[in-house]
Every structure is written in C-alpha cells, then in structure tokens.
Amino acid sequence: MASGRTLLEHEEKNKKPLGFFPKLYEGLVASLGRENMEKLAEMKGDRGAVLKFTYDLEDFRRGLLIQEAYPEKNPYEYKAKKEYGNKAYEEGKDIDALYLYTQAVVAAPCDPLTGRSRDLSVALANRSAVLFSMKAFHLALDDVRLALESGYPDELRFKLLERRAKIETHFRQFSDARDTYKELIKALDVAKCEKV
After folding, report:
1. Domain-located, residue 36
2. Which site among 46, 91, 152, 183 is 20 to 30 Å from 164 CA-CA?
C-alpha cells in the first residue's frame, strides 16, 4: 500500500548520519577491542595519558589517515535511481526526478581512464531534461554538453541536440542554434525513431 510520501521524503526520514567522523569513530572503537577500551576508561580524567595511549595504537594512526573517498560506482543502484527518476519525471515530480537522476549520475559506472560510459551519459541526459523543464537552462546546457562528451549513444544524439538548440534559441544565440539544428539533421540519419 502506498504511503503517500515521495522517495525523497522517505529517505530523509530514514536517513542515518553520514560523513567522515561518525564512520571514523565507529571504525576506531571496533578496532580497539575490549582490553584497550577498558584502559581508556581508566584514563578518563587524564587527557595527556589518553592522547599518548591512543597515538601509540596502530589502529588509531591508521584510522586517521586522510584519503580521498568517492562513492562506489554501482550499476544496480544506477539502474534503480534512473528508473525511479523516470517514474517521478513522468508523474511531473521534477524535484524528485532531479534528485534521483543526480544519484544515478553519481552511481553510474564509467571507464576510469576516460570517464565515459553509456550509463553516465544517459543519466546526464535525463537530468538535463528535468532541468530544461524547470527552466534551469544554463544547468541543462551543461548537462547536455557533459552527456555528449561522456559517450551518449549516436542513435539518441538527436534528442540532446534538439534540447541544446532550443536552449541556444532561448538565449538568443541564433547562429549557434542554427549550427546545432544542422548537426541535428545529420544526427537523424542514425537515429532510432518510432515509425508513425
């Protein structure tokens, strides 16, 4: 039975604390073990002793190493977020669709050397459609550009070119729009369109 909440509202309600320090703390506590935790409890009032004791622990030093962290690329999460985004977009829930497509962009697997993939480019293209419908034309144009650079499929390229041309026309960049429409006409040669 439907709860009447959007996915965003559901995730906000069930959100666990994120960030670097809660994870660091949990990892350190788990690695210290019972014996070291009891020793720390005995030193409760003596800050100098606590600092010296913890600094001498290998687990503590290892836990404090600062490293860049990126969310893990996950094709299953990408697919789920994209599909939920499609559903939200079809229902006119642009904010939810924008949120879900952004999550799909983050989760989309891509080639580590080139940063290109069909999944990433499709997620960017979908997000550009939402941004276009929200009249966030500058952002939509950025996503169109990124999608084309990320390996958007040639047979679907006409969709992005049409969106780009409309945005260029909106910004009164008529010569750019004319060039984009010319490119769009060429892209229709390889397009996969439904026959009417």
Report:
1. yes
2. 91
